[in-house]
Specification:
The protein has 119 residues and is mostly helical. The protein contains 6 helices and 3 strands; from the N terminus they run H-H-H-E-H-H-E-E-H. The mean pLDDT is 94.
């Protein structure tokens, strides 16, 4: 990526009416922190790989570990984080537990992120 310069105003003038309008519309601090934590989950390449795999098919920990060349323990650790953040869900079939994306929102987030970085 090239160096991007940020341009500033040539004069200092605070637009108080706009500031007050936006201030009223801003979500509460707690909600903003939750949103930041949600996006932090996407800051780990392993978790993003798992989400991309689950975008294609539900899988068990054994299959995820094999596909990604990782230990089942490492996959389980990441799945625990993804489940806590409600990004994945699981279902049991006999002795096998399958993981899948929690809902369509997660698919949209991944798809839109990919579109953005490929522009």
């Amino acid at each position: 990526m090239g160096k991007t310069e940020v341009e500033c105003c040539d004069v200092t003038y605070v637009h108080n009416d706009m500031i007050q309008k936006v201030k009223k519309l801003m979500p509460e601090e707690g909600l903003l922190n939750e949103l930041a934590d949600f996006y932090k989950v996407f800051g780990d390449a392993t978790r993003v790989k798992i989400l991309c795999v689950l975008l294609e098919s539900a899988m068990c920990v054994c299959d995820l570990a094999e596909l990604l060349g990782m230990t089942q323990s490492a996959i389980s650790h990441q799945l625990r984080i993804l489940k806590q953040m409600k990004l994945v869900k699981n279902r049991r079939e006999g002795k096998t537990v399958y993981y899948s994306l929690a809902d369509g929102h997660i698919q949209n987030i991944i798809s839109q992120g990919m579109e953005h970085i490929q522009e």
